[in-house]
Write a structure and sequence with these properties.
The protein has 468 residues and is of the alpha/beta class. The chain has 16 helices and 15 strands. It has helices at 3-8, 12-22, 30-36, 62-65, 74-86, 99-111, 125-142, 163-168, 203-221, 247-257, 279-284, 311-317, 335-350, 353-369, 407-417, 439-462; strands at 41-45, 48-51, 56-59, 118-122, 150-154, 186-189, 226-231, 261-265, 290-293, 305-309, 377-383, 386-391, 420-421, 423-425, 428-431. The strands form three sheets. The chain has a seven-stranded mixed beta sheet, sandwiched between helices. Helix 11 (279-284) links the parallel strand 8 and strand 9. Helix 5 (74-86) runs antiparallel to helix 13 (335-350), helix 14 runs parallel beside helix 16 (439-462) and helix 15 crosses helix 16. The protein is globular, with a radius of gyration of 23 Å. It starts with a helix and ends in a 6-residue tail after the last helix.
């Protein structure tokens, strides 16, 4: 078949070859990609995906934490199509607007906590975080503190992949020698990982130590140099790290005492993942200065991000009528994306998906917790519809297997062969299914993942590893 014919009517093998020969994937590992290529997906419905050969998989990853209302929604497709026909694009720079972006901004203001009534639309989560970090410096400068521009984040954090957002994040494996990262004016604290807290320390003592570490950093660096603190309520891609009780609230209080703006990175946790529109206040008792969000905002149907910030920050920036906030993107407030966001929220409200996420999240956590009985699983942790299994070689010491064993990828490969997609990250297998998941689908995930873990455990034992 000629290349043009394959392009117009490709077979599954043609699709694989096109991708293999021409695409650079995010986070490509060149060795495995050259050898194995990629799984080509051609259809989705609800929690399920179909590949080019017609095989069906339950996507327990929810795309990338994002397919909240499920795939294949005809009314969503119609809303997108109708908006594209009516107004496919509209410039939103300076003094231009469009009706879907105006309506979505007002809707987000009504859902966000406290006085977070202002919205800047971006292209996704990375650009929302990038813009939030820039806003910190802008606001502090407006307050007369031009040197108070530094950002404090945590180890094992992921905040995006722009130069600035990836420099602020510090997830293991993301820093590679071929790239360069911003180092000055960025500081990282210990992650609030209770599973790997110092031996003999209670969770309450661990929380005290984490807060003290922040206070010590401020004393060492100087509050006059730190403008903002950024935190995911639950560190998602960094290991589904659920903080100890009271940690986020206390860190927020430290920020308030030192005039440091609190950025809640809710790209993952917003729009139902934990059973609430936003997790910061409802779950963790924090009213941040800025919330960044994306993913569940449109359930992944089209790209859209948002930085939601307080009236107080707006008033600070707007005191001088001659100021310009010189940030934004061609596709900020894209009318089709905003129409999708509005329809997405309408569906979630009408179908009670937050309540379903809370119910299914409790079942999901309880059912998968039983996997801790397996010799390879050190901990099952999470909250709501976000969860991971952490694989260890020794349960008592929590020592992981050597990195080269790659057991989490082997587990995901085994699960994929059985029709289940889970995400391998270092020594973790991560899941974040759509909010529409059913009890039967939760059971399918649990049963299938257990089979995959047992299969890989048997392989490791035959290879000479002693587990348990």
């Amino acid at each position: 078949m000629s290349p043009l014919a394959a392009l117009n009517s490709p077979s599954p093998a043609d699709l694989w070859e096109m991708d293999h020969s021409h695409a650079l994937h995010p986070w490509t590992n060149f060795g495995s990609f050259q050898k194995e290529g990629a799984l080509v997906i051609t259809r989705g419905e609800g929690c399920w995906l179909w590949d080019a050969d017609g095989k069906r998989y339950l996507d327990s990853v929810g795309g990338l934490w994002c397919t909240n209302i499920g795939l294949g929604r005809r009314e969503m497709a119609q809303a997108i199509a109708e908006q594209a026909e009516r107004l496919a694009f509209s410039n939103t720079f300076v003094d231009m607007a469009n009706d879907p972006s105006a309506r979505l901004a007002a809707k987000l203001a009504s859902l966000a906590p406290g006085d977070l009534n202002r919205v800047m639309f971006t292209t996704g989560g990375s650009t929302a975080v990038d813009t939030a970090i820039r806003m910190v410096a802008y606001v502090q400068s407006c307050l007369g503190h031009p040197d108070k521009t530094g950002i404090v984040a945590r180890d094992h954090s992921y905040h995006g992949s722009t130069y600035l957002s990836q420099s602020v994040g510090k997830r293991p494996g993301d820093r590679v020698p071929e790239f360069r990262y911003k180092e000055d004016g960025i500081w990282h604290l210990s992650p609030p990982d209770t599973y790997r807290r110092p031996e003999g320390m209670t969770e309450a003592e661990f929380c005290d130590a984490l807060v003290q570490e922040y206070e010590d950093l401020i004393a060492r660096v100087g509050a006059d140099r730190i403008g903002g603190f950024i935190a995911e309520p639950i560190q998602a891609s960094g290991g589904v790290i659920v903080p100890p009780e009271g940690y986020l609230h206390r860190m927020w209080q430290v920020c308030q005492r030192h005039g440091i703006l609190f950025i809640a990175d809710e790209v993952v946790t917003a729009f139902g993942r934990l059973g609430h529109w936003f997790a910061s206040e409802d779950v963790f008792g924090v009213t941040p200065d800025i919330i960044t969000t994306a993913k569940g905002l449109t359930s992944g149907y089209v790209p859209l991000g948002a930085m939601i910030f307080s009236d107080r920050l707006w008033q600070i920036m707007g005191q001088d009528p001659d100021r310009w906030f010189t940030a934004g993107f061609t596709y900020s407030g894209h009318p089709v994306a905003c129409a999708a966001g509005l329809k997405n929220i309408e569906i979630m409200e009408r179908e009670g998906l937050l309540a379903n996420a809370a119910r299914m999240g409790a079942l999901f956590q309880a059912r998968l917790k039983r996997l801790e009985d397996l010799p390879l699983v050190g901990q099952v942790r999470g909250r709501g519809l976000m969860i991971c299994t952490e694989n260890v070689m020794d349960k008592a010491t929590k020592a992981p297997l050597p990195d080269g064993v790659n057991e989490s990828k082997r587990i995901s490969n085994a699960a994929e062969a059985m029709g289940l997609i889970v995400r391998p990250l270092a020594h973790l297998n991560v899941m974040s299914p759509p909010l529409v998941i059913s009890e039967d689908e939760v059971e399918f995930v649990a049963v299938t993942l257990e089979k995959a873990i047992r299969q890989v455990t048997d392989e490791l034992v035959r290879e000479g590893y002693r587990l348990g």
